[in-house]
Amino acid sequence: MLSYDLTDSIAVLQMDDGKANALGHQMIDELNEALDRATSDAKAIALFGRPGKFCAGFDLKHMAKGPNEAIELVKKGGELLLRIYECPLPVVMGCTGHALA
């Protein structure tokens, strides 16, 4: 779902769930693990989707399970966004296509 490649001290993260790269629990967990790894391995981070799709936003399958699930996912996603914003490394996001939400 998320690949990690260290090239010239740059952690290159690529989301590819085979669909629209929706942010569900697994994708968020993998992004957090990659950020942990990158902060110890790299000098910068580049985040991409696959060609034609960057990210669809939150996974609607999780959001449709009810308000508690939606709140949990939005909270987890907000924490990830804040973590990226406060990252001690430069973070570049390459929008390689649609960013739907």
Average pLDDT taken over every residue: 95
Distance between the termini: 19 Å
Cα radius of gyration in angstroms: 13 Å
State the order of secondary-structure elements, H for helix, E for strand.
EEHEEHHEE
Cross-sheet strand order for the largest sheet: 1-2-3-5
Strand count, sense and barrel status of the largest sheet are: 4 strands, mixed
The dominant shape is globular
Note the beta-strand portion: 25-35%
Helix percentage range: 25-40%
Number of strands: 6
Number of helices: 3
Write up what this structure looks like.
The protein is globular. The longest helix has 19 residues. The model has no long low-confidence stretch (mean pLDDT 95). The protein has three helices and six strands, in the order ββαββααββ. Strands 1-2-3-5 form a four-stranded mixed beta sheet, with helices on one face. Strands 4-6 form a two-stranded parallel ribbon. By secondary structure, it is of the alpha/beta class.
List the helices and strands and how they pair.
Layout: E1 2-7, E2 10-15, H1 25-41, E3 44-48, E4 52-55, H2 60-63, H3 67-85, E5 91-94, E6 97-99
Parallel strand pairs: 2-3, 3-5, 4-6
Antiparallel strand pairs: 1-2
Name the features.
101 residues; 3 helices; alpha/beta; four-stranded mixed beta sheet
Give a brief rundown of this model.
This protein has 101 residues and is of the alpha/beta class.
